[in-house]
Structure formats: C-alpha cells, structure tokens
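Re: that chain you flagged

S.,

Sorry for the slow reply, it's been a week of failed gels. I finally had a moment to sit down with the sequence you sent. For the record, here it is as I used it:
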Amino acid sequence: MKIFKKISVYLTFSAILLLFVFGCKTPNTKDQVLPEILPKLKFLVISPNQDGIQDEEVIDITLKTSNYISYWEMQILNEKKELIKKKTSGGNIEELKKQLFLKKENVDFPKQITWDGKDINGQLQPDGKYFIKFIVLDNNKAVFDTEKIKLDYLYIDNGLPSAKYSIDNKIFSPNGDGNKDELKIKLSIKLDPMEIKYDELKGKDWNIDIMNNQEEVVKRIVYNDSAGVEKELIWNGTDNAGNKLKDGTYSLRINTKNKAGNYWKSEKETVVIDTQSNPISVSVSEGSFSPNSDGIKDTIKFTITAKNKEKIDSWKLSILSMTNSAEAFSFSGKTTLPDSLIWDGKDKKIRNFG
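Prediction finished late last night. Pasting the structure tokens below so you have them in one place:
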C-alpha cells in the first residue's frame, strides 16, 4: 500500500508539472507580433558648432506594440558601423533574455531623443555620415532591431560655404538702348568637402539680394549650385514683380546657407541705376589753326562740359575728315573726362588717357 501511495503521489505531481509546462505560453512563438519603432529625424545634416542653428539632431519616436516594453536601446554608429554613442533603459538585454518571465510593465520610453554630435566620452565627432540604430525587447522577449530593416542616417557637416564674385556695370542704365542695360554678377562657388563627397548634400540656393535705401529687398535672384559652380547672373533693373525700379542707389549682397544651416554672405556692394541722359558739349578755341610750328595758332583747344562727369567711366573724342568722314585723330580714356584737350593737327594718331 505504501508503495502504491508513493507511485500515485509521484504520478500526480508529474501530471501537475506537465500541465503547468504545457499550459504556459512559450515566448518567441511564430505568431508573435514584434514591437516596431518608427524614428523620424528633424535634420538630414547637423553642424554642432554652437551657432544655434542645427546644432543637434532631434529624433521623434513612434512605438507600435501590443505588449510591454522591457528594454530599449539607441546606438549611434559611424560610417564603419563602429559604436559612437549609446542610450538605453531596462538593464542588460542578454540577462533579460535568460529570465523565464519578464514583468508586465513598461520601462521609461522617450518620445524624443536628441544627439549633440558627441561620443560616449563627450568628444565632438568629425564631419561624416552616421547611422541610428534602435533595439527593443518586449515582455514576451520579442526583439525588434532596426538594422534588420533599415538604418536611419544623418550627416555632420561643419564646413562653411564660400564664393568669389565680380560685378560688371555697377552703374548701369536699363533703358533699352543697348548700352549697359544690364548688371552682371559672376559667381565662382567653392563646395565644402562634405558636398563634394556626398551628392545628397549638394544643391544650395545662392540669393542675390538688391535692397533699397530702407534695406528692403526689392529684387532677389536665386541660383542653385546643383547646376554648376560657375555662373553669370543678370539683373535688368526690375523688382520682384517685374516693374522697372527708379533711378537711384541700391545695395547688393550675396548670401547662401548649406544643408547644415551654415551661413555665408558677401560684403554689401553699391550699385546705381541711371537712365538719365548725360549731355556733353564740345567747343573749340579757334575756328581754324595752322600747325606749322611757327608759334602762332599751332594748336587748337577743345573745351568739354558734361552734366555729370563723375558718372562717365569711358569716353572718346574723334576728329573726322571733312572730305570722307574718316577718323583723323582721337582722344579716349577710362578715367574722369578732362575739362579740355589740345590737338596739334597731326593725324593717324590716338592719344589714350588710360
């Protein structure tokens, strides 16, 4: 009887143990729904240079799961997939996997995480491409790893945009006469090393802003350097609505911002619209002269008057033959127009005043 009782108790205990084992859900079954993280980056590029513009990455996080989150981890990896920075909550993931059951409670899971471009030791990282990886473990021991689907990425770029430029016809007269009707800006753009290395970072707008004396932008010409780094841009004296601007003095400034938010601007240049005519008159000292070196009326003097001599940047005075209108002599210059000129009667010569 005692032997029978022992066998009966043993069988009963075994049956209870079997019921317990087979009655429990086994973690990581095939029909298990994995948790899912959907990170959204605010910037493609950051420049942690403490200028207040795109100094850090902001990552908004959406978590989709029907279970409890027992552990989460975010990793920042460099282009070689080496670990740079790590944020985590929940303890040790490998130890959690070894536990028979996990608590039905959530660890603190942020809706937003920022990264300031520094590594674990607080050192700023160099310009380059970086990846963001998330790992999540729920209370059923289901693991979601974003690397198995898609790694989000961002760039660090502290490079500053720059350009060389020149302006032709700073004083111009857009009156349709074919002479200095346009102002020309020649741009020679220098790309920073990150723009050269990664095509995704190329293509920033260059703004040529023309401002009135109240510092209001009356005209903006925009050029995107994805079309090339050498460009000549034209301004015909109109405003943003296509209306002709009044004669006067304006300021011109070139500015740009790359995808990291780094800003560059040129010095302010002064440009002038002047469509008014500038009458010039020439009078001669004598009606006739005799250039025979006898000391009497050997030369003739031309007296020149102009409304606005300071607005003249080049000039030419031609003396023509009465017979066939051929040019016998000429004076020319690119400096200030002189008040008078002296001719000694010699032909086929040109006197250049610079």
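What I noticed first: The chain has three helices and 24 strands.

Talk soon,
D.
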